[in-house]
Amino acid sequence: EAGVAQSPRYKIIEKRQSVAFWCNPISGHATLYWYQQILGQGPKLLIQFQNNGVVDDSQLPKDRFSAERLKGVDSTLKIQPAKLEDSAVYLCASSRAGLSSYEQYFGPGTRLTVT
Amino acid sequence: AQSVTQLGSHVSVSEGALVLLRCNYSSSVPPYLFWYVQYPNQGLQLLLKYTSAATLVKGINGFEAEFKKSETSFHLTKPSAHMSDAAEYFCAVSEGQGAQKLVFGQGTRLTINP
């Protein structure tokens, strides 16, 4: 079974530029998550999708961050415009739907550096 | 809201020694608790999980953790450290059912001395 795929793995941009990250979850996983992991901290949930609907985006800075999951499979996370404090690793995870799902499977992450 | 505190951002042990990584949680409901490991430049991998069954949970790579409700703790242990155990370890609590809406601790970096 293929794992969660993310691209690109690394990205360097200047502040005020825009950037997009892509995630392909494990086949059949209805739930998809985007996390932000700042250096030295644990991952923080940005947004959770169930199929193509948003379940929780309470911690997503909506003035600059946006995410979509068309057709309930792949997802993209966009930042526009980027700030220095957005430098972090962006992790995508997926899980099966339902209350019996006890594991989130994580991708390798995209390391973003904003200069 | 649920929260997790990991005591010690950096733990160093000798190869063959006991590994003990501490995690305390705060939860208003019976929690689901998790330990994840992160190797450099990789995503997180589940080590073990507590889902209200047995309080002593065994995971991969020889790790285990014990859920202690009275102490609100879920410490991770391994009897004998191996060089390959060097990594970042994260404790997490679920705010929802199952593995939904994980809240992570700040992590503990484990270093193994030869």
Indicate the topology.
The complex is a heterodimer of chains A (115) and B (114).
Chain A (H helix, E strand, L loop, with lengths): L4 E3 L2 E4 L5 E6 L6 E7 L6 E7 L2 E4 L8 E4 L6 E5 L8 E8 L9 E2 L3 E5 L1
Parallel strand pairs in A: 2-11
Antiparallel strand pairs in A: 1-3, 3-8, 4-5, 4-9, 5-6, 7-8, 9-10, 9-11
Chain B lengths: L2 E5 L2 E5 L4 E8 L6 E6 L5 E7 L5 E3 L5 E5 L4 E6 L8 E8 L7 E3 L3 E6 L1
Task: Describe what you observe in this structure.
The complex is a heterodimer of chains A (about 120) and B (about 110). Chain A has about 120 residues and is an all-beta fold. Chain A has no helices and eleven strands. Chain A starts with a strand and ends with a strand. In chain A, about 35% of the residues are buried. The mean pLDDT of chain A is about 90. By secondary structure, chain B is mostly beta strands. Chain B has strands at about 5, 10-15, 20-25, 35-40, 45-50, 55-60, 65-70, 75-80, 85-95, 100-105, 110-114. In chain B, strands 2, 4, 5, 9, 10 and 11 form a six-stranded mixed beta sheet that branches. Chain B has a five-stranded antiparallel beta sheet with strand order 1-3-8-7-6, with no helix packed on it. Chain B is globular. The model of chain B has no long low-confidence stretch (mean pLDDT about 90). The interface of A and B includes residues 40, 43, 91 and 102 of A.
